[in-house]
Protein 1
Amino acid sequence: MANKLLLFALLLAFAPSLNAQQTDLITNIEGRNTTSLNGQWQVIIDPYESGYYDYRYQPSNNGFFKNAKPRTKSELIEYDFDSSGSLQVPGDWNTQTDQLFFYEGTVWYKKSFDFQRKPNTRLFVYFGAANYFADVYLNGQKIGQHEGGFTPFNFEITNLVRDTGNFLIVKVDNKRRRDAVPTLMTDWWNYGGLTRDVKLIETPTTFVHDYLIQLQKGSRNRISGYVKLTGEKLNQTVTVRIPEAGISKSFATDAHGFAAIDFNADLKLWSPENPKLYDVMIEAETDQVRDQIGFRSIETRGTEILLNGRPIFLRGVCIHEEAPLRGGRAYSREDARTLLGWAKELGANFVRLAHYPHNEFMIREADRLGIMVWSEIPVYWTIQWENPATLENARNQLSEVIARDKNRAAVVVWSVANETPLSDARLLFLKNLISYARSLDPGRLLSAAMERHYINDTTQMIDDPLGEYLDVLGCNEYVGWYDGLPEKADRLEWRSKYQKPLVMSEFGGDALYGNHGDALTRWTEEYQESIYQHQIEMLKKISFLRGTSPWILMDFRSPRRPLPRIQDYWNRKGLVSNRGERKKAFYVLQTWYRELANTR
Ligand code: GCU
């Protein structure tokens, strides 16, 4: 055992150098010249992956990615995309047809398109997300693959695309694996498919590939970051302009197309009360990108969380990426507006987006609405801590979400884990993720939903060794649901080993909307209401509590919840039903949040 841990420690020691560079994700798709490939895609459902492997289970050179058609009456071709069914993209496959409701396996997607590329341009295909493993082909050629169901990726197709008759084929496999992230067991539905937008991005040959434009850590009037060009003409002058603030700053890029940017700026700061976003232009000689960026500082001091230098309480709620009203994986701006609108109605200034990166609309709407965001990667429950490939996968998901959202003022916390069991290997794994996140983005707070334990019948202790490496402590507790009855909270005291702020990142209980009874009858709105009443009194007594995000805003699907006529594969801990009906507990929390908004 000791040798294995030593070997793993050595591996981890060198891990940082494995891919220290940023992923080659193109930043800010919204501000680019794009063509949507959304809509109906032809699909082939392939549970035995016969479109990928031959009968000897060897990858075949003649798989479905060839999109072959019989050229003679005698030629044997045993598939045909164009006479097969179709699915809507973006969208999970599980809620589009009952046939695929429980399906976990491979589905092949095909999209045909024509594209006349302008001279002196490059072309990329961009996926907002594909759950879980995607093999991507264009015109019969493999252009890349991606692992992880909740982060974006793009591939260059400049030299492969033709004016007419292109066929983009994606093999999407959502089979769960022990070594994956997340691993086999989760309490959310494993929605499969091309779950977010698919776009073509046309850029100049040398373009603004990536940039970070945010306030320097701890500063409220100094912007620091970088601009990164990709292409042939890497030595250029790039200018960052914020017209409304009369700012125009130019920097020279080096031979790698990189320019560090650093300048004073007197700006209106972003906050929930005033979610100020500025139009920002990043201009190079060969390209320009426009973005909407808010500027705010976020830090901790002792047990305080400071937004723009002032102590703040995070009045939050957890949200799964479940589509409101229709169910299935949420993906649109409308979905985001509905969910965040309900959070606002609750009186929230904060949301914990569980347990994986949500779509970009969610983050951009939070930016616009003034809602702070806890963003998390799905290092959930019992990950394979000692598997270097699992670590690399988790690091990659972390770097992709940071690449996508690093310019969003709303995102204040990166969370690297949820409810992960104590062990040395786990701690090494998570420490690695934490230092990696800090290297990619020094400006935000790091957290995780950590372990806690009773030191006696009435005292909970937070001394998970992970706390040492975090800025904000996160804890999930279900006093009154998995742990005793609601009134148990009245007798509980909370202690922490750390002089750090605590966000109670989950608490709550299930209730079926419209199911009524006395406050001790499980599954009733009255029981859930009672949990919240007792919880809030307990939470008010915790001196280092600086935020709450109860579980959860809306009921969501889970394969672990089969109880007939109550759950029916829904986790019913929502304060709102999946049909948008507010449960009694919704108003208990709303009342408290209104009080807090007036006092803190
Ligand atoms: C856990 C977990 C959630 C889960 C919830 C529940 O704490 O983090 O993902 O859904 O509890 O049991 O409802």
Note: Residues 16 and 542 are 37 Å apart (CA to CA).
Protein 2
Amino acid sequence: MNLLEYVAKEILAREGVPVPQFGVASSPDEAFDVAVKLNKTPLVVKAQIAAGGRGKGRFADGYEGGVKICKTTEEVREVAAKMLGGILVTAQTGPVGQPVRKVIVTESVNIVEEIYLSLTYSYSEAAIWVMGSRLGGVEIERIALENPQAFVKKTFLLDQPLWDFQLREFGAQLGFKSKSLVDFSKILKSLLQAFIKHDATLCEINPLAIDRENRFWALDAKISIDDNSLFRHDGLSTYRFETVYDSQELEALSHGVNYVGLDGQIGCLVNGAGLAMATMDILDRFGGRPANFLDVGGGADQNQVEKAFRVLLSHPNLKVILINIFGGIMRCDLIAEAIVEATKKQPLHVPLVIRLEGTRVKEGKEILEKSSLQYVFAEDLEEAAKKAVNLVEK
Ligand code: ADP
Ligand code: MG
């Protein structure tokens, strides 16, 4: 799960990273109130979306820039009015862009230099991979391509203590000296601690600015949290819906269904993530395109199957539904019953292909046959994929 900048900044500020004062607003009037409270100009208004490249982004209506400097509080209100409710398209959002529901209003920093600093996992080394560059800012992607030697890299092992000398070594490699080196090392330590404490998979500050008084400021912040750890981060779960923009994904999330929306026409309902991926692969092999990834899990019941159907059926491109169940822990008779009951409540407007295999498959088939459900049966996955693709073409 990706956190919006304002949540990431709240986390970083709590960990002791210097963050310029800011407030969050959902309406132009709220933005104005924040500006008045900050009592300082100029101020910066920043669109909150779960993607970078906002500074160089453009709104769907042509308005330029998701990061704007404002000279007056009145201008803050005007800029917020332009951004809120708009769709911001950046190099990272893809052409559809992302809707702006919140902005932050923050102090403007007199930037002398912009540093890039990021933490991610190195899975092969079971360590945190830290990357830094003195050439941070909005051109960082181009610099990474053209000038990779401008980056300093170092891994920090998770099961070892964090020694100050290691932090200073990294700062020194970036060319910091005396007080700047001490300040930078402290920030890096806070980031490493925040990363571990919040089960992050990414923590990026770009830019970490240096102002005229040689002070560091985190002007931007991006944090991704490992979804599997959310059970122990109660406070963060509330932000889960903020960065899901696909309406089917949002519905799936609210029903606890493991769903990723795609742009094909064959809706897939599968048990098990591995089987779901194999199903997508084999569809692709026969020239079909999945409309989604959907894993109902090992112990799906009628309620979950019903919810899964609801999400599938709302996909705008849907032409066929393919159910591929391999009953291991899951019993085929229970899933067959769930399909029959769920489709009674949610009438299907597209053909349905079913492949059932495994525990109590005979009983499952009987339930399907006795029901009034219209479906095409397939004995194996290959046959199921071919039939689904044929139905799309018909
Ligand atoms: P993005 O990475 O999405 O483009 P940033 O928050 O990094 O958004 O902002 C883009 C650029 O805007 C920064 O590189 C910085 O130059 C400038 N900027 C951002 N926040 C501030 C601020 N509070 N004060 C001054 N300049 C800022
Ligand atoms: Mg940035």
Note: The pocket of adenosine-5'-diphosphate (ligand 1) is lined by residues 20, 44, 46, 52-55, 67, 106, 108-109, 111, 114, 137-138, 206-207, 219-220 (CB under 6 Å).
